[in-house]
Amino acid sequence: MNPDTDTRSRILAAAREMFHGRSYADVGIQEICEAARVQKGSFYHFFPSKRDLALAVIDDMAGDWAHGFVAEAFDQALAPVERLDYMIDAAYYWQKAAADIEGRMPGCLFGNLALEMSTRDDVMRAKLNYVFDKARDRFRATLDEAVATGALAAMDTEATATAMLAYLEGVILLAKTRADPDLILRLGPAIKTLRIEMSH
């Protein structure tokens, strides 16, 4: 691996773990450098500021998210309604695995950062909005297909997709607050009952 690529990857990995496990405000650059085994000069070579690093972490996590369990959950080989079930299962196993390893639920990195930073940093808020919009689009495409095939009744698929994303994020947040990943399995299936009617 290219030394520069390796150094940048180590910084990203260290920051991602710290931001997800704790918070953006609670983590300092020096601490990140120590965890990544790099000097501050190397840090600033790749990231002019902590905010630039956080934006890169969001991109990095979004890539893993989109190409990992989200891609699996929204697999085109699955029937549209089955994708919603799979999404709940994937969210549960993601949080359960983290809880088993770390002893606590980390929640959703994007949701955590949105709660912490949306009123403090418009650039980060816009970046998080972009990630959430991409996730909403996955739900919407699934709903459009389900409606087109008659698996679900007609609805406002964009508004319903937004509501489903909000519900999923809310369930993950509540499960994190209660330190109970099983809550995702108990409450998650209700996502399929959400439906926003078309406005006339």
Biggest sheet, in brief? none
Give the count of helical stretches: 10
- Predict the CATH topology of the largest domain: Tetracycline Repressor, domain 2
CATH class assignment of the largest domain: Mainly Alpha
Structural class: mainly alpha
What sort of overall outline do the alpha carbons produce when their principal axes are compared? elongated
* Average pLDDT, all residues: 92
Measured on Cα atoms, how large is the radius of gyration? 18 Å
The CATH superfamily of the largest domain is known as Tetracycline Repressor, domain 2
Number of strands: 0
Task: Write the CATH architecture name of the largest domain.
Answer: Orthogonal Bundle
Number of separate domains: 2
Question: How does this structure look, described?
Answer:
- 72% of the residues lie in helices and 0% in strands.
- By secondary structure, it is mainly α.
- It folds into two domains: 1-48, Arc Repressor Mutant, subunit A, CATH 1.10.10; 68-193, Tetracycline Repressor, domain 2.
- The protein starts with a helix and ends in a 13-residue tail after the last helix.
Q: Short description, anyone?
A:
The chain has 200 residues and is mainly alpha-helical. 72% of the residues lie in helices and 0% in strands.
Question: Helices and strands in order, then pairings?
Answer:
Elements: H1 3-21, H2 29-36, H3 40-46, H4 50-67, H5 69-73, H6 80-102, H7 109-117, H8 122-148, H9 157-177, H10 182-187
